[in-house]
Amino acid sequence: MPIAARILCLSVAVALFCLRYPSLHFAATFVLFLYARSRGRLWGILGLAYSLAMALALVYLGERYVVDCALGGVVALVVWHVGESISSPRNLSRQQSPQTAL
User: Fold this and answer.
1) Of residues 13 and 70, more confidently modeled
2) Is residue 11, in this structure, part of any structural domain at all?
3) pLDDT tens-digit readout, 17-28
């Protein structure tokens, strides 16, 4: 098999794996829930309902397995916590304090 065909087959396999696991559709709605939760109890409940409806639809319609949605939730939690740690006031004050050049 020529090298170009091997590269094409490998890139298609990687793309299919990345598109399949985890469910980024669920991860996006779960991040929306995490944000809505910080805005109040009612918004948190509505965000959770939307996120669970997305998971139910993905599994019921056969687009994803339950484990795909669970891994999407894990990815969303990791991204959310990394984003919070980067944007914490301690890190922001360290980044915004300019050093004067003499």
Assistant:
1) 70
2) no
3) 555 677 888 888
